[in-house]
Amino acid sequence: MSMRLQNAGLPRRLAAMFYDALLVLAVWMVVTALLLPLTGGEAITSQSVGVLEAGYRLLLLAAVVLYFAWSWTRSGQTVGMLAWRLKLVREDERLPRWGDALRRLAAALLSAAPCGLGYLWIVCDDNRLAWHDRLSRTRIVLMPRR
Predict the structure, then answer these.
(1) pLDDT (0 to 100) of residue 3
(2) In this structure, are residues 114 and 76 in contact, taking their beta carbons and an 8 Å threshold?
(3) 77-89 burial, b if ≥16 CB within 10 A, otherwise e?
(4) Were both Cys, which of 16, 43, 87, 125 would link to 80 (CB 3.0–4.6 Å)?
(5) Residue-wise over 53-65: b if at least 16 C-beta within 10 A, else e?
């Protein structure tokens, strides 16, 4: 018999998001540094590279999507989540699939859009679920101490 894991609260989630944001920022810096030789060391803007700037922005977006979706489908945890003992699971407590991860990322944008109200909803929700948890049929659980 498996014991149902407790859903994580807002403070831990925000802490993990902060850690992950630092890591994503570092990845963006590496991606940007790798592309700078193509611009002669100039900033990547629509004025400096024209329409290629859209490709640069898509590359940055792809890095974010790959980081989260790959981490979640592989282990249910990003680096930030691992540090805070959090794990993403589907409603059946299995690891999310790629479709689950992509739905969650898209739904997270909806949660963030109205001044983060979808995230703050965790405080009001009896089950500590954000809007994107419900929309993606996934949840963030607190893993037991080892």
Answers:
(1) 61
(2) no
(3) bbebbbebbbbbb
(4) 16
(5) beebeeebeeeee
- What does the alpha-carbon distance between residue 136 and residue 58 come to, in Å, rounded to a whole number? 23
Strand runs (DSSP E) across the chain, as ranges? Answer: 86-90, 138-142
Is 72 in contact with 95 (CB distance < 8 Å)? yes
- Joined tokens for residue 103: 């739905």
Find residue 88's DSSP bridge partners. Answer: 140
User: Could you give the CA distance from residue 119 to residue 115 in angstroms, rounded to a whole number?
Assistant: 9
pLDDT at 105: 97
Helix count and strand count (H, E) for the chain: 7, 2
Looking at residue 37, what DSSP letter applies?
A: G
C-alpha separations of 48 from 29, 54, 56 in Å: 18, 12, 12
Decide: residue 105, CB within 10 A, 0-12 exposed, 13-18 middle, 19+ buried: middle
* Of residues 144, 139, 145, 146, the one with CA closest to residue 7: 139
Instruction: Give the integer Cα–Cα distance in Å for 19 and 122.
Output: 19
Per DSSP, the three-state class of 62 is: helix
The pTM of this model reads 0.89
Position 1 confidence tier, pLDDT thresholds 50, 70, 90: very low
